[in-house]
């Protein structure tokens, strides 16, 4: 069966899993004449609600073109990054970046606060500075008041950082800051914050610094 035929089935997997597992799943589908694309998205619940998700897609370019209109309905930004498994690899790399960013932001806030700058003013200054990424602009205020519902929980972020560490070992890339962030998330779980947004790394550092957290 030609999986590029107009009526051929296509599975688009938007989960963030191990690249090797993604490829194995693709092989199982291919044996049944079904095409498979890995297409994780970035943007969390807010992006899904507002149809502003960003997709990364891995797999056959022709199959990708067949499903592009469906992805555009919920995400206007789509990048085909290459072969199967590379989209989840890219998503893991992105989540590595936002996890490490949050830890660095937390350190900056607490250094300023412990030195005498009110936490609110430190957050305001940082979010107006060159360090303010889009992620920090919406998650940075969580260090002032943690939302009841996590946008992306400690457990989910730690899962993705574990995937990053495994991929780093597989391809020979050291990830020291990722390892530290992973351990800080372990500490957050130990403090009972597993279901909180991963911005809870701030609370871990705050308690270590003798300051109140945001939870």
In short:
The chain has 215 residues and is mainly α.
Give an overview of the whole structure.
- This protein has 215 residues and is mainly alpha-helical.
- The protein has two domains: 10-84, NAD(P)-binding Rossmann-like Domain (Rossmann fold, 3-Layer(aba) Sandwich), CATH 3.40.50; 89-208, N-(1-d-carboxylethyl)-l-norvaline Dehydrogenase, domain 2 (Orthogonal Bundle).
- 54% of the residues lie in helices and 10% in strands.
- The protein is built from nine helices and five strands.
- The chain has a three-stranded mixed beta sheet. A two-stranded parallel sheet has the order 1-2.
- α4 (86-114) crosses α7 (154-171), α4 crosses α8 (176-190) and α7 (154-171) runs antiparallel to α8.
- The longest helix has 29 residues, at 86-114.
- The protein starts with 9 loop residues before the first strand and ends in a 7-residue tail after the last helix.
- The mean pLDDT is 93.
Q: How are helices and strands ordered from N to C?
A: EHEEHEHEHHHHHH
Number of helices: 9
CATH topology annotation of the largest domain: N-(1-d-carboxylethyl)-l-norvaline Dehydrogenase, domain 2
CATH top level of the largest domain?
A: Mainly Alpha
Structural class: mainly alpha
Largest sheet: 3 strands, mixed
Mean of residue pLDDT values: 93
Question: Biggest sheet, strands in spatial order?
Answer: 3-4-5
| Full CATH superfamily name of the largest domain | N-(1-d-carboxylethyl)-l-norvaline Dehydrogenase, domain 2
Assign a percent range to the helix content: 40-55%
Overall structural domain count: 2
Second-tier CATH architecture of the largest domain: Orthogonal Bundle
Query: Could you tell me the number of beta strands?
Result: 5
Cα-based radius of gyration, to the nearest Å: 19 Å
Distance between the termini: 55 Å
* Envelope shape: elongated
